[in-house]
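Quick question: what would this complex look like in 3D?
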Amino acid sequence: MTDVRDEGRATAAVGGPEPSDKAPMREALIEAAFQLFLVHGFERTTVDDIVARAGVGRRSFFRYFPSKEDVVFPEHERCLAEMSAFLTTSTDGEPLDVVCDAARLVMRMYAANPEFSVQRYRLTREVPSLRGSELSVVHRYERTLAHYLRQRYAGDDAGALRAEVQAAAVVAAHNNGLRTWLRGGGQGDAAKAVDQSLIFVRQTWGGVGESAERSTAPAPAPEDDVIVLVAPRSAPIWRVVQKIEKTLGDG
Amino acid sequence: MTDVRDEGRATAAVGGPEPSDKAPMREALIEAAFQLFLVHGFERTTVDDIVARAGVGRRSFFRYFPSKEDVVFPEHERCLAEMSAFLTTSTDGEPLDVVCDAARLVMRMYAANPEFSVQRYRLTREVPSLRGSELSVVHRYERTLAHYLRQRYAGDDAGALRAEVQAAAVVAAHNNGLRTWLRGGGQGDAAKAVDQSLIFVRQTWGGVGESAERSTAPAPAPEDDVIVLVAPRSAPIWRVVQKIEKTLGDG
């Protein structure tokens, strides 16, 4: 059930190799849990059912997972740690591009095992307590990204606001792309789906740099070169934009 | 404890008048619960403690609140209903301005009772299960706004993506402003704090229309009048903004 891989990215958490000798038991528990959830439903499956099917003791379950909900999201802790590590070393580059790259780590975790990801997506939509767990983990990703952006924007007026809004926008766009892929049964290219959504966020804030080249955003045509106007430094940018839009006929 | 009001906006949920004769018991339960939470903590207070202090039966508690968590957020259901009703009737106007106005309904609910809101904010930060409840309700607001925007953008390419990203941005900005106000002990002007954050979202997408006039954005001084040059219609607005920012010395 958990042996579908993508580009060899399958990892320790689901079906992949794990350096520690504890991995087989953890995997067996995840596999047993999902087999039971799919047949009997999440609510009607108990931890006792899971350990019986996996052939291990109850204590072993709780060594790996704090609760039954956690067995459904076995890789998020590691992915959060990877994201933090990636951000800690990413002190250069456009801040928004960096957090888009960080968000892609989540997509890659899902893409590493399409079948498991699609099963979990369907399960999560049906079980309220799992939706709660998922909201909580999504919130932690968002906070991690916002924390990074706040540091990068330290000293800017309203840097914290910009950081929080952009982090929320990146997470929303990422999840929009990921959901498109999941709804398609995990058949297509998850990276493409997510990148197509993330480009909207980067276009929104005008930052289409190096990462954009990799993405699917249409490059501006040469005739799109604009004439630059000069305004007093104190002019709020939105007023400039408003007038331009009016002049261009959008207003 | 719950008698601090703001601009007469206090409502049935917390300390205000209620047409139904059930209100006093509901209010008594909320008041008793918060007195106990503040003294003994949320976790150590039981529903039995709350009903004993309020002088009502256990069944009465569950008639008003599905769980102990729900007594902490007594007004969100009504606010969600108000938001939906507001959006249903708001078929005109810039979609982004409409959802900003809808988000302000949440701020007003908090501002209606600053003392209660600040107490709850402090309690929620300390109790993980309350943070979970709060995340869940924030998500419902975000979905409500996204649903509205999706309908308004129906037919647009990537309308759903735009709707979800903008709804997330509006919620993040709203909560940033609200948190600023709550951290200040609910002393200042909640509307001003939230509007100052929301203006960033509306500037981001270039739409600063009628609502901006009502908001607290500083009015531009006359000498801020800008000179507008004309760019080709096909120029993406972000490139125009990027160049302006560079010219003004921000880039």
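Answer marked as accepted. Residues 128-152 of chain B form the longest helix (25 residues).
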